[in-house]
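Could you show me just one protein sequence together with its fold in token form as a worked example?
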Amino acid sequence: MTDKTEIISTRQKNYTLFVLVLVFTSSHVDRQIMGILGQPIKESLQISDTQLGLLTGIMFAVFYATLGMPMAMWADRRNRRNLISFSVFLWSGMTALCGAAASFSQLLLLRIGVGVGEAGSNPPSHSIIADLYPKEQRATAMAIFGTGINWGILIGFLVGGWINEWYGWRTAFVVVGLPGIFLAFLVRFTLKDPPRGYAEAKGQELPKVKAPPFWSVAKFMFYNPVLRNIVAAGTLISFTGYASVIWVPIYLVRIHGMGTGEVGTYLALFIGVGGAVGIYLGGRLADLLAARHGEQWLPWIVAIASLLGIPFLYICFTAATQTGALWAYALPAALGTVYVAPGFALIQNQTPTEMRSVAAAINLFIGNIIGLGLGPFSVGFFSDVFSPEYGLDGLRYALMTSLVVILWGSFHYYRTGVLLKRSVS
């Protein structure tokens, strides 16, 4: 690494961010397509809701989150672009192969393969964005990056839903998986890995960066109360978010009798377009309020958005008609990912340059084991528990059990803001 920074043009920054959004989009297409294909897969492979929860939740999350740690440590020491490129290639190939699964066990192993691939993408992406954009622009940049969640859900639900109706769920996996292989080559041959600490250097000498041991980063995060609370908050909010993204499509198909194409179209609009607007505006608003009134507004914006969604989710899960369920879900769908950008930005803001990839990986590990892993799994488990007494409505009650977690998460966002406010007073 050179001692002086080379000027990175605005065009190059924006292109790098654009490609990283494509990467994040691809990961969520391959991850969330299980939501729209869940009911056809259940019927085809004759599996329970608990097994479906394993496919979409805990088994995927364990490998995704655990392997993210060593990959993030590698990223803090080596070329981040190459790791991202390899990861995209792996998860895309595994997704396409899901179409050939003949049993629950085979599909489970392939979904684990998808998780292994996705483990190497997010931490280095966060680190690259933090190196390109200064602190005052970071939440907005993270919000733009975070819209990949929504674009991924839009593509996965829309394409997956209709391809399933026309050609079956196996073809849907192949159609959404193969384009990622071309994206892997785009990353490898068109992106540059920026110097570490570039945004902080501001044209001066680059900081001398030496990545510390993993446990030093873990200890730093544990003893930082802001980081403790923001990790806990994001984990709890994502618990309900991941559960609803996976199970609301299944709920609409199973209980309200909608087709996967119809459900995919509506949810592509609500979660894809509405959620992308929500996450971007949330990040922009958080940056503006933080600049004017203090950094505590980064988490407080999320707390407000999360609490606003609770009554609408309750109406959705108890609705007697498909129209009522759909339109009640529209606002929570738009607000559901507002937490992503402020949370990602705060973790990068509170963490030294040499720790950023690993800090992001630790956050993703905890968030994904509990949120991505236990969120969808718990709803599937409780659905099986409630179904003997309530029949199909067991899924309604299972979804409602996740709502109390939003209140818990909102408290931690509020607490994070209080701690940030105290730190500058």
Observations:
- DSSP finds 19 helices and no strands in the chain.
